[in-house]
Structures are given as structure tokens and as C-alpha cells.
Amino acid sequence: MKSFLKIKSVRNSLTLLLDDFCKKHGLDSPKSYNSTFNDHIPFGEWLSKIKSINEQYPKEGLGLEIGAMVQAKHIGIVAYIAQSCNTFADYIEILSKYERLWFNYIPKKINFDDDFFSISWEKPAYVQAGLFIEETSIVEEMQVSIIYHHLQQLMDSAKNAFYRLELAIPEPENIEKYTQLFNCPVYF
User: Fold this and answer.
1) Phi, psi of 41 (to 5 degrees)
2) DSSP string, the chain
3) What is the C-alpha to C-alpha distance for residues 33 and 146, in angstroms, rounded to an integer?
4) What pLDDT is recorded for position 23?
């Protein structure tokens, strides 16, 4: 039976995001994976790439910095579909419906109430077993940062997309870095 790390995958174009980050900071880009632009890489390979970057650039909030560089080309077709959305709710629906096309990880739970929405997901079993804990925290920061920055790119106004944010990662020493980026209270 295949493991989670081999079944789940990340769109290869997201490795271009990692490459762009490495170029910007003068880092060695993680080893390449032989596939075409539209293919996916196994999640275990993705975590190895994150680990390689983290070893070269061990910095609190690494996932935030990587995610801040996101462009539509990194997400692919889902980003382009999202550009056709008329409302925020439409965007969230597209994101949840087609997310596996670019980031096939843990299914997201999306809840809407009168004025707010929430996106959540469970921790994978490999983290509960004590594997890839630091890399997974970076990936989870990156996911939230990618969603945030992509939303900001799509919004017409300077209004902030987030009211508050709860991250299921260990509390960092510099919480201010998170609250300044997302412009809202952040809880860990």
C-alpha cells in the first residue's frame, strides 16, 4: 500500500515558486524532479525540497516569505479560474473544489457564517507520528500565505481579506511578523 507521502502531490509549477525564492535569496535550488510543467510531484518530494531550503535559510516565517512570492503561474489553472469569480464566496468555492489540481494535500473544510468564512484541515498522520514536523509547519504557513496573497491580488480594494487567523503550528518568537503580514490578529 502506498503511503500518504507518495499518494498526495503538489503541482510541479509550485516548485517554480521555490526556485524563484531560491534565486531571490541566493540559495541552491532543491534537486529537480523529472516531470513536465503540468505534472505533480509526490508530497514526500515536496517536503524534501522544503527541508533543503530550510537548511540553507533557517528563518522563522519561511513559509510566509515563500508564499508572498506567489503568482498565478505557480498555482496554475485554479488561479486563472479564480480570476473569473465575481464574489469572494465564488473564489472560496473554486479554491475548495479544484485545490487538488495544484495542492493535493489534506481536504479542506470550509465554513461560512453571516460575515466570515473559515478554512481548516486536519494534521496528516505522518506529523502525528513525529515525521516532517518542521517542514509541515513551513508548508502550512505557505498555504495560508499563498491563499492570502492570491486573494489580495484579486481584490479591487485595499481591504484586508482576513479578520483573524488561527494557525495550527507552534507559536513563533516573533508573532508581530505574522500580524503585520496578514494585518489581523494571529493565534497559534
Assistant:
1) -110, 150
2) ---HHHHSEEETHHHHHHHHHHHHHTPPPPPP-S--TT-EEEHHHHHHHHHHHHHHS--TTHHHHHHTT--HHHH-HHHHHHTT-SSHHHHHHHHHHHGGGTEESSPPEEEE-SS-EEEE-PPPHHHHTTSSHHHHHHHHHHHHHHHHHHHHHH-SSS--S-S-EE--SPPPS-HHHHHHHHTS-EE-
3) 22
4) 95
Mean pLDDT in runs of 10 for the chain (188 residues)? 68 90 94 62 90 96 95 87 82 81 78 74 81 91 89 73 82 90 88
Residue in the structure block whose three cell numbers are 505533480: 40
Closest among 141, 147, 149 to 117, alpha carbons compared: 147
Residue with cell 486536519: 122
C-alpha cell at 81: 479560474
